[in-house]
Amino acid sequence: MTLSAYLDETIALLRATQEHGLDGALDRAVDLTAAALTEGLPVLVCGNGGSASDAMHIAGELVGRFRRERRGLNVVALSANPAVLTAWANDYDYETVFSRQVEAHGRQGGVFIGISTSGNSKNVIAALHVAREMGMATVGLTGQGGGAMAELCDVLLDVPSRVTPHIQEAHICLYHLLCDRVEERVAQKTEY
Ligand SMILES: O=C(CO)[C@@H](O)[C@H](O)[C@H](O)[C@H](O)COP(=O)(O)O
Ligand SMILES: [Zn+2]
Fold first, then answer.
1. May I ask which residue range the UniProt record assigns to the signal sequence (predicted)?
2. Is CATH 3.40.50.300 the classification given to domain 3-189?
3. Choice from 6, 9, 13, 51 to test ligand 1 binding pocket (greatest atom count within 8 A of CB)
């Protein structure tokens, strides 16, 4: 496939995402995330493979900075600690590597963000269950329809595709905008 053909696919999905009517869901995700972070409550993010990198990317933007000077925010990527991941997966199972960390770092009133292009990754689903039991708000970044995650997410940001790499590309646009708007909101409401 040529670069031009690949980018045509990407552009088509970004256009479809633009027309998919996600504005209200994004507004809700911003409200929930900004409210939690303003109170110092945790935002926990996880995913597998490329989405594990996306979880770390989000934490990097919000712990550090996106576009504005403001204080560091309580955002943790659950894919970021190899010792925790390998010990738990080795001693127990991979399905609970994220839910165990939600148990450890989650708080009532915090936000859990699960990223899965299929919407069906078992470890993300298990973490969503624990997040809900703990009284956290749940946000899903998924592909078309949200798969099994749909019914476990208070807010679903589903990209209208079933092609994993292109869904991930659209996810970056969604979470960069989420970070921009959360940062703007938190910067207004808190002292540096
Ligand atoms: O980055 C990619 C594909 O672009 C892969 O690493 C991909 O993330 C992995 O296959 C994941 O395990 C897919 O999981 P999910 O998105 O269905 O939850
Ligand atoms: Zn990838």
1. none
2. no
3. 51
